[in-house]
Design goal:
alpha+beta; 4-stranded antiparallel beta sheet; 4 strands; globular
């Protein structure tokens, strides 16, 4: 999965996502060269739900795979 900057360049490329207990761990590269390893906690995932209204989240998730790039 690639995460792009606002100017269209690749900011981060996630190569693996694995479950480790209650955490999601990911590995990839930042700006094409610097390796990175991170961990996503359940608290951080719950905080995202506070930023997005529930009906908008479901509408977004359902429509996102069918949108053009």
């Amino acid at each position: 999965m690639k995460i792009f900057n606002t100017d269209g360049t690749i900011l981060m490329e996630v190569k693996t996502v694995e479950r480790n207990g209650n955490y999601l761990e990911f590995r990839g590269t930042v700006m094409g060269a610097m390796p990175v390893k991170g961990r996503l906690t359940p608290e951080e995932v719950r905080s995202v739900f506070g930023l997005i209204k529930p009906w908008r989240l479901w509408l977004f998730l359902l429509s996102f795979p069918f949108r053009k790039s």
